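Fresh eyes needed here. Kindly weigh in on this sequence plus structure tokens:
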Amino acid sequence: MGESFLVFDVVYFKVTGVLADLPTNTGFRFEMLIPYKIAKADESWFYPSGNSSFGNHTYVELSPGVDIKTLSTSIRDMNLENGVFGLHGGF
């Protein structure tokens, strides 16, 4: 904890936390977690590695009674309005 390490020979990150091993049935796969705000501030360090995406996923906890079809339609419409529909699948 507190040590710094070099990523892609370009940028240093400081270790501020360590996670225990995640359960084998999780969908989370990562080598490191960094704040999105920091990652998006300067993406140039990320692309020399051959990566082209941060692979973002959004998870939400729905309140009881929320209609999933209505929510899916709202998200689809928002994506259409913002030009991001269809990048990684659809609703």
Remarks:
- The mean pLDDT is 77.
